[in-house]
Design goal:
The protein is an alpha/beta fold. Helix content is 46%, strand content 16%. The protein has seven helices and seven strands. The two termini are 28 Å apart. It comes from Amblyomma americanum (Lone star tick).
Length: 210
């Protein structure tokens, strides 16, 4: 029997497969997506171009944000799935205080497993001096934090994203939400956005929902 979370979880797999296919065709460079999905599914050019546009749009806005605020800023990727943004930013030598990825525990548990399995991913999130804390669904290391929680459960969200990940509510913070709010009711998404504006003194939201 399917749970209400199953379609949401499946969208992560579909997105990762589509991104790997687009990367294999040269739409953009991402050497890390291969570690999260074993193979790509052949997609139409329209789908590949759509993902290319999304990836480039987020990158353009994030680059401007990082240029404006420098190393004293934070990034929160809502519904991050198997996104490889952190590793790509590291390759670009981008500077920021913290990047927190949030998704359902079923997704983050698998992502934790892949990170621990692949040295190419693990070495990107921590140096020998960093303390790596790992549980079944959460991972904290250096500038990178991966937490599993339901975005509708704001008490858990606050505990994991702010307190456990060490976010500073006063620092400039970009929230990224790609195909996330569409899976929440209007009341649920409004509650989440209200929580962000109420708690962060300088917050930016980048949202894509079809």
């Amino acid at each position: 029997m399917m749970s209400e979370e199953d379609p949401v979880i499946q969208t992560n797999i579909d997105a990762a497969l589509s991104k790997r296919d687009a990367v294999s065709k040269g739409y953009w460079h991402d050497p890390y997506i291969q570690y999260f999905v074993k193979s790509s599914e052949r997609k139409t050019p329209e789908i590949s171009r759509g993902y290319y546009a999304r990836v480039q749009a987020v990158k353009m806005l994030l680059d401007k944000f990082l240029k404006l605020y420098g190393p004293e800023c934070q990034i929160v990727n809502l519904g991050a799935g198997f996104d490889t943004l952190f590793w790509r930013l590291m390759d670009d030598k981008a500077q920021f205080r913290s990047l927190v990825e949030v998704d359902l525990p079923a997704v983050t548990t698998r992502k934790c497993y892949y990170i621990r399995l692949r040295k190419q991913l693990l070495k990107g999130i921590a140096t020998e001096d960093d303390d790596v804390r790992v549980s079944a669904s959460d991972l904290h290391a250096g500038h990178y934090h991966l937490v599993g929680c339901d975005l509708r459960e704001l008490d858990v969200f606050e505990a994991k994203v702010v307190h456990e990940s060490g976010l500073d509510l006063k620092l400039p913070t970009m929230f990224i939400a790609e195909c996330v709010l569409v899976y929440m009711s209007c009341d649920e998404s409004s509650a989440l956005l209200s929580w962000i504006t109420r708690n962060f003194s300088n917050a930016v939201l980048v949202s894509y929902d079809p």
